[in-house]
Amino acid sequence: MMSRGRFRKTALVVGLSFLYLPILSMIVFSFNNSRLVTVWDAAHSPTLKWYSALLSNGHILDAAWLSIRIAAVTATLSVVLGTVAGLVLARFGPFRGRALLAGLTTAPLVMPEVITGLSMLLLFVALEHAIGWPDGRGFVTITIAHVTFCLSYVTVVVQSRLAGFDDSLEEAALDLGARPARVFFSITLPLILPAIISGWLLAFTLSWDDVVISQFVAGPSASTLPMVIFSKVRLGVSPDVNALASIMVAVVALCVVCSTLWMRRLERRRQLEEQMARAAGG
Fold first, then answer.
1. 47-60: string of b/e by CB count within 10 Å (b at 16+)?
2. What is residue 2's predicted lDDT score, i.e. its pLDDT?
3. Assign residue 22 a region: left if phi > 0, alpha if psi is -120 to 50, beta otherwise?
4. Half-sphere exposure (CA, 13 Å, Cβ side) for 62?
5. Could you tell me if 155 and 109 are in contact, meaning their C-beta atoms sit under 8 angstroms apart?
6. CA distance linking residue 217 with residue 113, whole number of Å
7. What is the assigned CATH class of domain 27-32+45-281?
8. How far apart are CA 261 and CA 245, in angstroms?
9. Label partner for 176 (CA 20 to 30 A): which of 62, 139, 143, 195?
10. Could you state, in order of their start, the residue ranges of all structural domains in the chain?
11. For residue 151, how many other CB atoms are within 10 A of its CB?
12. Which helix (H) or strand (E) holds 163?
């Protein structure tokens, strides 16, 4: 009979294989010489021609650049608004409208994307008829729509970090005569910086990956990269899609590794500073 430890290891291997083997097969088939994406051409050696064809495709490159700009602006605005909302919900205690603010910031987490996209489309159409803005749909409308749901994730991350925050550090700084603004930028912000970075990366990924909401608020001249991929898949998968997806996987993996190393470095520095502070105080 299989032991419990062996069963757990087997289940872990099966689960990881189920998640990552399709991605690995996609990367392997991106070097396939055949135009058939599911049949390996054993008669010819692996090739990079699909990567070359992808990099010479202006439509895909323009969509990728648009997605990067939208995701970067969305993540930055979401971090600013989400950090403020998280601070208010975690630090200000009970106040009039707190339940409303908490509900508004968390509603996009459970709201179906179809409802969010349709409501944003109706809002932009009504504003355009009323005040003439926005003039059409494109970069601005997609960014606003993405911020509306990405800031909810940032708010939850920052609020969770502040829930376990040691207030004694801020109180000590205030007792020593530091102004609240100085306390925030010198103590609070560095300590919650890992949560802010995590929120930025999460918002960037969500914005980069979104298809449903973007379909509603994007105009004919503004197609994000996921929208282009989705349209290509509907018309039939071509080998350059495997190359494009492989590049995206590589970029995401590189960003995750770099952010993890940076956050570990920040955490070690914070622990060292706390140890030095305790040693000086003792």
1. eeebbeebeeeeeb
2. 57
3. alpha
4. 7
5. no
6. 12
7. mainly alpha
8. 24
9. 195
10. 27-32+45-281
11. 26
12. helix 139-163
Cβ atoms of 76 and 143 within 8 Å: the answer is no
**Residues in the chain, pLDDT under 50:** none
Q: Is-contact 197 98, C-beta < 8 A?
A: no
Sign of the Cα pseudo-torsion (231, 232, 233, 236, in order): positive
Structure tokens at 242: 């495997």
Tokens found for residue 34: 């055949």
Angle between helix axes 98-110 and 139-163 (nearest 10 degrees) is 120
Based on its alpha-carbon atoms, the radius of gyration of the chain, rounded to whole angstroms, reads 24
What count of residues does the chain have? 282
- In sequence order, the 6+-apart residues with CB closer than 8 A to the CB of 112 are none
Coil, helix or strand at residue 45: coil
Token pair for 150: 């990405």
Q: CA-to-CA distance for 22 and 110, rounded, in angstroms?
A: 28
User: H/E/C letters for each residue in 245-280?
Assistant: HHHHHHHHHHHHHHHHHHHHHHHHHHHHHHHHHHHH
Contact 211, 194 (CB under 8 A): no
Of the candidates 107, 124, 106, the one whose C-alpha atom is nearest the C-alpha of residue 222 is 124
Backbone angles phi, psi at 226, to 5 degrees: -60, -35
